[in-house]
Design a protein that fits this description.
By secondary structure, this protein is α+β, with helices and mostly antiparallel strands. The protein contains 16 helices and twelve strands.
Length: 442
């Protein structure tokens, strides 16, 4: 076995494979001293060293993974070797399925999985449609009065309504919406919170209390047998589970409820906001989608879904996926030692020019034309892949498509101003408001 590390490699990453190319220390130091975004460092690493690159943010090695073969190896083929240790949003989500690990995660995911595939999704179809109709009515009034709206706020309102109906059977009321603004406040604060969980909770204690109060009220109402106009929702599935599974305490039900709220609206709202910003720069893409087929035709739906997929390519729901190697492994020919931190980065894989020609260009035809996109499963994974892929993938795609089917044919947007950069937190979101007025479609 080779025990000599060549120049620019981490000697303790040797194993049965060759050493991983390593960034020269000066690159990381310059980035750190300059106070830049992590994505800027990762972009330089990918461009300079390729799809598997090693660097150090501290005493332990970190490996960036953007190569499709390596992505599939880490996330889909060997998830037991590359585990999720904790979630940045644990202060908000608690032990919900997104942040749970090990046997607890398996039990929680198994319970929820059936709700988001096939028959399960059909239960929530009309609730999503009702939320879209409510948004469409609001937009019709904005168009009639000429009132300025904030696109990001409107998308959050719609997505929150859709998931709230699906969870509780009730449409979102104004009071609940006001209180659940605390969810976005905590999510935005997460990157700046203290590393210690207790200190982090103290920093956002008031917002967490508001969220807990909403969750407690919803749980009590569901447990008392109070059903909304749409009948029982996902929350009732959790409450029913508690009768047979002692681990489903009120605290875990709260954590799952908040997890589903966050995962069910924040990513969808961000995707839809980016989509409208991209259409503002590429108006021909909107026209192409609307002329792809008649209203309610499969062709138009496919074209609208392509708008969503291309937006997710540029701004994936999870832009970075941290993992931790629990054992020595060979990753696409490179040696990885147990204890190594792994950063899988959909954002950079989706912008790799070797996989996606002209990757910065918004081109939905990649998802409607033969050979328009790479076929390797590790080349496009905005919701992750493998056993920890997002449960709500189909829900999110349906949410986005249904709203666009209601809004795109009727209104076009004129932005008063647009954000100039992105913020890389739990999601990649526009940095700033998105004020716009509506023009009726002629």
């Amino acid at each position: 076995m080779d025990t000599e590390a060549g120049p620019g490699s981490l000697p303790y990453l040797l194993g049965t494979g060759r050493p991983i190319p390593e960034a020269e220390p000066g690159l990381v130091e310059r980035w750190h001293s300059g106070g830049g975004e992590l994505v800027e460092l990762l972009t330089q690493l990918r461009e300079g060293l390729g799809g598997i690159a090693a660097f150090r943010l501290g005493p332990a090695p970190t490996v960036l993974v953007t190569d499709p073969q390596a992505v599939q190896h880490v996330l889909a083929q060997h998830p037991e070797r590359y585990v999720k240790r904790s979630h940045r949003a644990r202060v908000l989500l608690g032990d919900g399925v997104l942040s749970a690990t090990g046997a607890a995660w398996k039990r929680q995911r198994r319970l929820l999985q059936s709700q988001f595939t096939g028959t399960g999704m059909r239960r929530y179809e009309h609730r999503i449609t009702d939320a879209a109709r409510t948004s469409a009515g609001r937009w019709a009034e904005y168009a009639r009065t000429g009132q300025t709206l904030d696109v990001g706020q409107e998308m959050r309102r719609y997505a929150l309504d859709a998931i709230w109906r699906s969870l509780t059977g009730h449409p979102l009321d104004d009071g609940t919406e006001r209180e659940l603004a605390a969810v976005a406040a905590v999510a935005t604060a997460l990157p700046t919170l203290p590393a210690d969980v207790t200190d982090a909770q103290h920093a956002v204690v008031a917002d967490l209390a508001r969220i807990d109060a909403v969750a407690r009220h919803a749980i009590e109402a569901a447990r008392s047998g109070e059903a909304g106009p749409d009948g029982p929702g996902l929350l009732h599935v959790l409450i029913d589970a508690a009768t047979e599974r002692p681990e489903y305490t009120d605290r875990l039900i709260r954590d799952e409820l908040v997890t589903l709220l966050v995962a069910g609206h924040e990513t969808t709202a961000t995707t839809l906001t980016w989509l409208y910003l991209l259409l503002d720069r590429n108006p021909a893409a909107r026209e192409a989608a609307l002329t792809a087929g008649a209203e309610d035709s499969p062709q138009r739906r496919q074209a609208i879904q392509a708008l969503v997929h291309e937006t997710l390519r540029l701004y994936p729901s999870a832009w970075i996926l941290p993992r931790h190697a629990t054992e020595d492994d060979t990753l696409a020919g490179y040696a990885v030692e147990a204890g190594t931190d792994i950063l899988v980065c959909p954002y950079l894989t989706h912008r790799d020019p070797e996989l996606w020609p002209d990757p910065e260009h918004f081109d939905p035809r990649r998802f409607t034309t033969p050979d328009g996109r790479p076929t390797h499963p590790g080349a496009y994974f905005p919701f992750g892949i493998g056993p920890r892929a997002c449960l709500g993938l189909q829900f999110a795609l349906r949410e986005s498509t249904v709203l666009l089917e209601h809004l795109l044919p009727v209104h076009s947007l004129v932005f008063s101003s647009t954000p100039t950069k992105a913020v890389y937190g739990i999601t990649v979101r526009p940095d700033g408001p998105t004020p716009a007025t509506l023009l009726p479609q002629s």
